[in-house]
Amino acid sequence: MSETVTLTDARTRLGNLVAKSHHGGEIITITQHGTPVAAIVPYEVLEYFRRREDEADVALAERILAQDDDLVPHDQVRKLLGMDEDS
């Protein structure tokens, strides 16, 4: 179940909307001038998407590291850029 509210309405009903999301699992879409601009989602939904994003980042890093391209170590990059080791 989901609900759409204006930003003005969300300001006055925030506590109720958060409770609906938290306890009822609802996704609340907030609009401004008729355009969706934000959402209130159950925290578990946010955590799910954060985990997926982290998994995608790790997979990308693993693919990059598995390539045969010549990688430049961090300390060598710092040296090439004239960055002091202690800064």
From TrEMBL:
Kindly give the InterPro entries that the UniProt entry links to this protein: Antitoxin_Phd/YefM (IPR006442), YefM-like_sf (IPR036165)
**Family per similarity comment:** Belongs to the phD/YefM antitoxin family.
Record's superkingdom?
Bacteria
Q: What is this protein called?
A: Antitoxin
Q: Which Pfam families match?
A: PhdYeFM_antitox
Q: Which residues form the signal peptide?
A: none
What NCBIfam families is this protein classified in?
phd_fam
Transmembrane region(s): none
Its annotated function is as follows: Antitoxin component of a type II toxin-antitoxin (TA) system.
